Amino acid sequence: MKDKVVIFWFRRDLRLEDNVGLQQAVVSGYPVLPIFIFDSDILEKLEVKQDRRVDYIYQVLDAMNSVLHTHGSTLYIDYGKPLAIFKTIIALYDVQGVYCNRDYEPQAIKRDELIDSYLKDRGIQFNTYKDQVIFEKSDIVKDDSTPYTVYTPYSKKWKSLLAPQNYASVVVSAEHFYKTNPLKITDLEVLGFQKTDIIFEKPNLELEIISDYDKKRDFPALDHTTHLGIALRFGTISIRSCVAFALKYNEIWLSELIWREFFMQILYHYPRVVTDSFKPKYDSIIWRNNEAEFQLWCSGKTGYPIVDAGMRQLNETGFMHNRVRMITASFLCKHLLIDWRWGEAYFAQKLLDYDLAANNGNWQWVAGCGCDAAPYFRIFNPTAQTLKFDADLSYIKTWNPDYEKYIQIPIVSHEEARERALRVYKQAL
């Protein structure tokens, strides 16, 4: 006789506490078998095998598994295509239901539809829940039931509908996990990846950072940002705890969390933005797409110190300060007239906190082609931005200490680049 269980499938919610789908599985009345799938369709696309994000996930899973062991349970981890792995699990257990939290990316939606169809054919319910956002899908829409495509009215509606029950934490009992012998996680090398320098630490909400986030967030040398992007991306922290904290201590940080949800609902309602401009007329822009200049941008050798500092920080650490992300992205699209999709793909490869919705939304914002975008004639001047946000060059000297070697030969002059961008954009539009 196979053991009766329900499955909880961890995806973008790697925590045992304050987890909606996991809590629902726990109260189902059946022992909960927690699983995680290293999706080969995703991992095989990662060309660099020393990927900090994969290592981060691996360390998180190891920590979760240790906790489960103390409760006489274990985490079932496998590598491959999700459908094939579900076939294996269903052969081993009498599965009474599958529980997980919803994902809103187009590929994830297709994956879940495939799994749902397979389970349904076998009389197994596929139960999904809202967990990684406060409001999802069509929770926040205009009076005519169409999605918002401008942030400010979306944000106002979001705040007007917010109630304490939306950000109340949920309690997960550890007593209802499936009891079994502990399983060790497969070595990272077996997955085809290598150990990196990243060290997972349980994320914290730091009052010192968040209380004056609005005053210091734009100055990269201060490094006064939460660094919670990767935790929110992989769900090692609950969005509900973040919103509760932001409501108490800093409205500007709350607005950043709302931006995250705004871009998620844009991606959900308009999945074409993955490959196309939100505003179709911007796809008429004739990009220069000079590959040599793109490589200079990637390696931080444009001759603009703050741009080069940002790219070097990204290449070395997998992180770049948000203000500098805007400057470097604008430089690529406007100064070099290189397609925003090239920059988006490079950031996707390098960023620890890479999130499709946010990365896509922010790149289209900078390029002027997205919803609620910066107008095309807004072109960041890297020198003016440096004077405003890194006047003493502290950030530049940290990440681009040899900047003086390069400032004599900038890749293009700001004024010439600006005029060229305005001309090319105007012709296209």
UniProtKB/TrEMBL annotation:
State the organism named in the record: Sphingobacterium kitahiroshimense
Q: What is this protein called?
A: Deoxyribodipyrimidine photo-lyase
Q: Name one Pfam family in it.
A: FAD_binding_7
State the Gene Ontology terms under molecular function.
Answer: deoxyribodipyrimidine photo-lyase activity
Which N-terminal stretch is annotated as signal sequence? none
Q: Which UniProt keywords apply?
A: Chromophore, FAD, Flavoprotein, Lyase
Taking every annotated instance into account, which residue ranges of this chain make up the domain Photolyase/cryptochrome alpha/beta? 4-134
Which family does the UniProt entry place this protein in?
Answer: Belongs to the DNA photolyase family.
Gene3D superfamilies per record: 1.25.40.80, DNA Cyclobutane Dipyrimidine Photolyase, subunit A, domain 3 (1.10.579.10), HUPs (3.40.50.620)
Its Enzyme Commission number(s) read 4.1.99.3
Q: Which cofactor does it need?
A: (6R)-5,10-methylene-5,6,7,8-tetrahydrofolate; FAD
InterPro entries reported for this sequence? Crypto/Photolyase_FAD-like_sf, Crypto/Photolyase_N_sf, Cryptochr/Photolyase_FAD-bd, Cryptochrome/DNA_photolyase_1, DNA_photolyase_1_CS_C, DNA_photolyase_N, Rossmann-like_a/b/a_fold
